[in-house]
Amino acid sequence: MPNVQRLERGPMMTGGTPLRSLDEDELLGRILPGFPSSDDLVVAPGDDAAVLRVSGPLVATTDTVVLGRDWLDAWSSGADIGHKVVAQNLADVAAMGGRPTGVLVTLVADPELSLEWVLDHVRGLAEACLDAGVAVLGGDLSSAPPGVVMVSVTALGHLDGEPVLRSGARAGDVLAVHGSLGLADAGLRLLQADAVDRLPVAVERQRRPQPPLAAGPEAAAAGATAMLDLSDGLLRDGGRIARASRVVIDLDPQALAGDVAALTGALGSEAALDCVLAGGEEHSLLATFPAGALPEGWRVIGSVRAPSDGEAAGIVVAGRAVAHTGWDHFRTV
Amino acid sequence: MPNVQRLERGPMMTGGTPLRSLDEDELLGRILPGFPSSDDLVVAPGDDAAVLRVSGPLVATTDTVVLGRDWLDAWSSGADIGHKVVAQNLADVAAMGGRPTGVLVTLVADPELSLEWVLDHVRGLAEACLDAGVAVLGGDLSSAPPGVVMVSVTALGHLDGEPVLRSGARAGDVLAVHGSLGLADAGLRLLQADAVDRLPVAVERQRRPQPPLAAGPEAAAAGATAMLDLSDGLLRDGGRIARASRVVIDLDPQALAGDVAALTGALGSEAALDCVLAGGEEHSLLATFPAGALPEGWRVIGSVRAPSDGEAAGIVVAGRAVAHTGWDHFRTV
Description:
- By secondary structure, chain A is α+β, with helices and mostly antiparallel strands.
- Chain A has nine helices and 13 strands.
- The first copy, chain A, has helices at about 25-30, 80-95, 115-130, 185-190, 200-205, 215-220, 235-245, 255-265, 270-280, and strands at about 40-45, 50, 60-65, 100-110, 135-145, 150-160, 175-180, 225-230, 250, 285-290, 300-305, 315, 320.
- Chain A has a seven-stranded mixed beta sheet with strand order 8-10-7-11-9-12-13. A four-stranded mixed beta sheet of chain A has the order 3-6-4-5. In chain A, strands 1-2 form a two-stranded antiparallel ribbon.
- In chain A, helix 4 crosses helix 5 (about 200-205), helix 4 packs across helix 9 (about 270-280) and helix 8 packs across helix 9 (about 270-280).
- The model of chain A has no long low-confidence stretch (mean pLDDT about 90).
- At the A-B interface, strand 2, strand 3, helix 2, strand 4 and strand 5 of A face strand 2, strand 3, helix 2, strand 4 and strand 5 of B.
């Protein structure tokens, strides 16, 4: 991942009403009414902290998006970014087998950012939370140097049973996926090539990922032995399960042929294969199950075995070891 | 609050090992072992999300600090910032009457930021969490444009009883404070004046606030009717309680004379009074109690009454209405 460039102020910051023309109370007065609540929210945003009734162990995770690194103003609306940052956080809750219940949202922005962008962003956040039955528990607003906009979300949820870790895959399990593969990366490539009409569904997935949230707790109840959400690509994320579980995961290229074929028309076969194997930001769920325990909606794409003598834990495709790859935030490449 | 200036890369970014020379796994390997855990942490950082055993209603809050707005490299070390961002978040949990149990920490930084700064920062975060018996549940690392460093913390806690809101103050209550007044702002002024030797304790309080965390649940158990932590100054925060509760709070200047006197030698009497009445970032607790219910460690600094005919809810000093003032993050002043 290259360094994030210093950005010139784009359209988000040159039209409409700049944030600096409102005081914090006025701004909160425009933002807070748009956020969904829930019956479990005992104290809503506006006090020192929110209070939420909880049942069972708490699941907690956090993920941040930064303008210029995670999105471009030209490619995604404020509402798109609201949807996306909520979706990627809730996917992490689901990937533990949890049911998301609430989020906290922090906006750190150049005071030149337009109020209109922020209100559109809030609409997207609120819609994504409402769709998932999740309340907005609170947040923070902060000013940032010129050109900087970032949104940080913390998601909370609860577990009905035991959490599903990355480390529980066992020899004899099957590897399965719930949801699409490579679509979000295909969308990114089409945006980069200014060719969004070639596969609009991929562009829409890049802008608004659709993690199968209900499938996480269903997989946990069905006995999933390991699970995560695909944020950094099948090879890299599958490799994480394999190494944490000290097993070898054998990906079945035949099982991925349909995913590759779906992208080949828009991208050509080589790029399509890249997207399916290494494409990030998909937020489908990847899990291992004991053979025969697969719940509805999951499809088998590989199998789990013990490493042979001297073989490292990891992921192999049709028997050949492959390097894990994907996003890296600080390394200059 | 003026806009945050675009910063030139300072010492944090010009010495030692830049973050960009490590990949994310290497960086996490340096950071995660320093963080405290707890017996209630079922799944520690490293999976999709953390899992925490909880009892009672959950308290959740979030607060972010930005280089150049909330701190300057020349004035605060990485460890200082770690202490401060944890303290201000935990203070919000305590101000609801809650006991903090865990935090999530996000670092968004220019990849030129030095690893040495980050490791020092992690030491400060870890110390502050350890002092408070709080576990680090997880976090996120993200790259940012040149010169940008920010740290966002979400704090979680639990309540033994009912939450203490800002809106519960009643006529006949006393207003009380637990902790110092104006010290952190005095420290800021001494740093600005390059005169830290005049009152080192104030500078230390500016760098590392000391919220009285245990006093929050104690106040709740003793029957506090309203509470918050002093982040934006006595007038502004006291005014928040008054308006939320639809009462008038009468500050007693005599009760503040000692606080002003303690700062007068270093700052002169006018600035000392400013610090006590309007100084931010103190993170002492401010609460209202029924007369006679004051727990140990709290001192009375005012009283609560119903507004007279046509009088607005708010805070008055020796009978005279005063404008609320303090920090505002987006308004250009």
